[in-house]
Design brief:
heterodimer; A: 750 residues; globular; B: alpha+beta; 5 helices; 35% helix
Chain lengths: 750, 156
């Protein structure tokens, strides 16, 4: 630290200034990746496999090339670099070679002058497939006789097996409950489809304008596939219409660049909604088998768990998701004896990877269901049981890691428990407040109210020894007679408000009201991904560090000028000191290192920070028709420091909503590896009619290791809302409800 | 084919329109008005909501030819110069905008609501916006925005 901060500035840390991009977005003038346009631009389209598993005998593109208006039809033979990519394990072809491993796998790409021409040309490509029997069951994929989908993978169909062992392998308990739980395949369902514009450059390189979560990891993968030096592939962040994990993996990035370089023209690719369901990874479906043992007094003795995650056809981030599901697998509870085995598997189902909550969501549905089951077996209140076993600062997790900052799990539970209850349904009946709504399915008969609770734990930032850093370039100069700060990072603004936050930090650190956030691109070093609830922490930390470096330089300049030490920018006339000079510093900033897990015992300080949220859900259930209306969803979360209080609450609302979706409606329906519902007609996400009022309590218990004491915000509310809602439906119905999403047929015997 | 209609008060013409193109495609790709969004293109998400002769419609479900000779008002036509419409202002002020991809459609739908009903109840707001999907906000701050906009429009 160098010099004192200016803490009184408007629009600084801890305030909620309006988003700098808000007015543009509200006017319809913000340029999203699908809005881009260039002179002589062509449109790209993708031919995808209709089969979950097949050999490709031949591909005939002649009829597609013959269609007027078509400029290029490319297959794997036209990929000049390595025809392979992947975030953790490069195992996915840019364009399929001799085998397709999931329905929707790209086989060929087309560029044409009109998007409909491109689609029709793709339809005219003749692919001769030898259809194979797909592997669609992640558990069966472990069997010795199962077809091995990636022969080069040493573990067969196992992407990763994570073992956590702690304490006594054979503990005894007074009360034991077991359960098997299932989580369906959820989709991120961002609204802005995968899209971007690739522009060939005169230097032989390419400029790609794209919606993504991590520009530099895209850049590396695109450059490798194009066979170009990394610096010849320049990425620019276009407007991002939501992400939620679905933009971590490549979609159209390489394809657009290939077509642009082949045709010498700008090429735009925009997926339609149906194609989007095939164009990105999903949340891993899971089977989770748990056994909880406790003393008669309600103290947890042990947890044994087996978790099977269906990673689908390609690895994506399955290994890291499995790491999270395992290390966070017992939840925010003190458990002396733990045995967890988590398997991330290859199948011929759609590839699965990152979605908000990242492995912690699946585990939480199981361990929270178990806590309710255990409470029932012990005859104690489910909130009391949770509080009795809750972790706190200093607790040891199943990995042996000690929680070294606030972990107010008990307080969060008490906060949501002690909220006033919503009023009961009252006569006269307003249909809009009934399960089934204005479909007029009930006037209150058969409607039972239930209340349920859930609490969750999430790691913040990248874990298990990953070199997790961000880069910020901060420049201070005088423009038009006033000091102006310019902040340049490659961090992806995906809606969460990072652009607002970066400006807040710069204002606070440098005491300058006017801050310009430069467009994110690869002209500055990597910021890492906008995922793992990490950008406020890591890019926020980088911006702060770069501001500190600039401040230090300015104080030296001022001291030189005055001939005496200067300790605070408040004492500095920036216009006079800077004159026509600019002070610019670029800083790479890292959080504390984490370590790998021991492969046999899963012991290790794998995570840098933990975050917690708790929910109370109140549901009205028509127990005769199986219809559910969530009446209220109360959340309490510790955010360390509310950097931007309005944005924090917005994240909690949005995260809670996605958890509601998983609880009662959202699932990609698969049959034989094929997606049956790739549309917003058939894949339902919550509408404004489905969402209840959401009260939010925010705690600010600073983490001394984190910038400003902040704690990552985005994911925890997605983790705890799902089990809370299901618990409320259980309370109303008495049903076991071991699978999400809960469907009417789970509530009513059909 | 050629399609001519009025957009945001100006007569506009698009040439070489393929008969299968939607009004949304013509607005976005031929007339330089990409404010109306392309999130589902099947009438489920409301992101492309525009006024057609004063009535909110999903532009993705209107064939371009159906707009011939009619009046279209898009999200780009709501503000007056630098001054945002009160609905737009309310969305920005209340934090109802995150990624913003749903915002243009919601702004048009809310613009229509608060002018039809300057004092909507929460239930009426929910009903009016039920055709617009948002994935970021959980709708709480969108409700705040519409309440604020209604109060401002009602007061003026």
């Amino acid at each position: 630290m160098t010099g004192a901060l200016s803490t009184t500035i408007a629009g600084g840390v801890g305030t909620s200034p309006t988003r700098p991009d808000g007015a543009l977005k509200a006017r319809g003038e913000f340029a999203y990746s699908s809005d881009l346009w260039a002179d002589e631009m062509l449109w790209g389209a993708t031919l995808r496999s209709p089969h979950p598993y097949a050999r490709i005998r031949s591909v005939d593109i002649s009829q597609a090339l013959a269609l007027p208006g078509v400029y290029a039809v490319l297959t794997h033979e036209d990929v000049p670099g390595e025809n392979i990519y992947g975030l953790e394990h490069p195992d996915q072809p840019v364009l399929a070679v001799d085998v397709v491993r999931y329905q929707g796998e790209p086989v060929a790409i087309v560029a044409a002058e009109h998007p409909e021409t491109a689609r029709r040309a793709a339809d005219r490509i003749v692919v001769d497939y030898e259809v194979l029997e797909p592997v669609t069951d992640a558990e069966a994929a472990r069997d010795a006789g199962a077809p091995v989908l990636h022969p080069s993978n040493a573990g067969g169909n196992v992407v990763r097996h994570v073992r956590i062992r702690r304490g006594d392998p054979d503990p005894a308990a007074d009360v034991v409950v077991t359960g098997e739980y299932m989580v369906g395949m959820q989709d991120q369902a961002f609204l802005g489809p995968e899209s971007g514009l690739a522009v060939p450059a005169e230097d032989g390189g390419v400029d790609l304008y794209v919606a993504t979560q991590w520009l530099h990891v895209d850049q590396q993968q695109v450059a490798r596939a194009l066979g170009l030096p990394v610096e010849s592939v320049r990425l620019h962040l276009a407007g991002v219409g939501g992400a939620f994990g679905a933009r971590e993996d490549l979609s159209m990035q390489v394809h657009a660049c290939l077509l642009a370089r082949h045709t010498g023209k700008p090429v735009k690719i925009v997926y339609g909604r149906a194609e989007s369901f095939f164009g990105h990874v999903h949340r891993h479906p899971a089977v989770l088998r748990y056994e909880h043992g406790a003393t008669r007094e309600g103290s947890l003795v042990y947890v044994r768990a087996e978790i099977i995650l269906d990673g689908g056809a390609y690895a994506s981030t399955t290994a890291a998701v499995a790491g999270n599901a395992a290390t966070l697998g017992v939840g925010p509870y003190v458990v002396p004896h733990v045995s967890v085995d988590c398997w991330g598997m290859y199948t011929n189902n759609p590839p699965c990877g990152a979605m908000r909550g990242f492995g912690a969501v699946q585990a939480a549905f199981a361990y929270e269901s178990q806590m309710d089951k255990l409470a029932a077996a012990l005859g104690v209140d489910p909130v009391e049981l949770r509080i009795r076993n809750a972790v706190a600062e200093g607790s040891v997790l199943p990995t042996g890691q000690v929680i070294d900052s606030a972990a107010p799990v008990a307080e969060l539970l008490k906060l949501v428990r002690d909220k006033p209850m919503p009023p009961p349904l009252a006569a006269p009946v307003d249909l809009r407040e009934m399960p089934g709504g204005v479909s007029n399915t009930t006037h209150g008969e058969g409607v039972v109210r239930g209340v349920g609770y859930g609490v969750g734990i999430k790691n913040v930032g990248f874990s298990e020894g990953f070199d997790d850093y961000s880069t910020a370039r901060v420049r201070l100069e005088v423009i038009g007679g006033e000091p102006v700060v310019s902040v340049h990072t490659a961090a992806a603004e995906v809606g969460q408000g990072l652009v607002t936050l970066q400006a807040q930090i710069a204002r606070t650190e440098l005491g300058v009201p006017r801050v310009i956030i430069q467009p994110a691109d690869t002209g500055v070093g990597s910021a890492g991904s906008s995922s793992a609830s990490r950008q406020s922490y890591v890019t926020g930390g980088a911006v702060r560090a770069a501001c500190e470096a600039v401040r230090s330089d300015v104080l030296k300049l001022a001291a030189d000028r005055l001939g005496a030490p200067v300790s605070s920018l408040d004492e500095v006339d920036l216009v006079a000191v800077l004159g026509s000079a600019a002070v610019e510093r670029t800083v790479e900033w890292r959080h504390r290192p984490t370590s790998a897990l021991d492969p046999l015992t899963g012991q290790g300080n794998a995570h840098v920070q933990y975050a917690f949220a708790a929910h109370r859900a109140v549901c009205d259930v028509d127990v005769e028709l199986g219809l559910v209306r969530v009446v209220e969803l109360a959340c309490a979360q510790d955010v360390g420091r509310a950097m931007n209080p309005d944005a924090v609450v917005g994240q909690i609302h949005g995260g809670s909503a996605q958890g509601l979706g998983l609880a009662v409606m959202e699932e990609i329906q698969l049959a034989g590896g094929k997606i049956r519902n790739p549309s917003f007609t058939d894949y339902l996400i919550p509408t404004v009619l489905d969402m209840p009022p959401m009260s939010v309590d925010v705690l600010e218990l600073a983490d001394p290791h984190a910038p400003y004491g902040l704690r990552g915000v985005g994911e925890p509310p997605t983790i705890s809302s799902t089990p809370a809602i299901v618990a409320a439906i259980r309370a109303a119905t008495g049903r076991a409800l071991t699978r999400v999403p809960v469907r009417p047929e789970h509530i009513v015997d059909c | 084919m050629r399609v001519s209609f009025e957009v945001n008060g100006e007569p506009r013409t698009a040439d070489d329109v393929w008969p299968g193109e939607s009004l949304l495609y013509v607005l976005r790709e031929r007339l330089g008005l990409p404010g109306s969004k392309n999130a589902c293109e099947q009438g489920e998400c409301g992101s492309c909501t525009v006024y057609l002769d004063g009535v909110p419609v999903c532009a993705c479900l209107v064939a371009a030819g159906q707009a011939e000779g009619r009046e279209v008002r898009t999200v780009e036509g709501l503000a007056e110069g630098d001054a945002l419409d009160p609905v737009q202002e309310a969305f920005v002020r209340t934090g109802a905008v995150q990624c913003g991809f749903c915002t243009p459609g919601l702004v048009v739908a809310a613009h229509d609501l608060v002018r039809r009903n300057p004092n909507p109840s929460d239930a009426e707001i929910r009903e009016a916006l039920a055709g617009n999907l948002c994935r970021c906000t959980g709708y709480e701050k969108i409700l705040d925005a519409v309440r604020l906009a209604a109060a401002q429009v009602g007061a003026s």
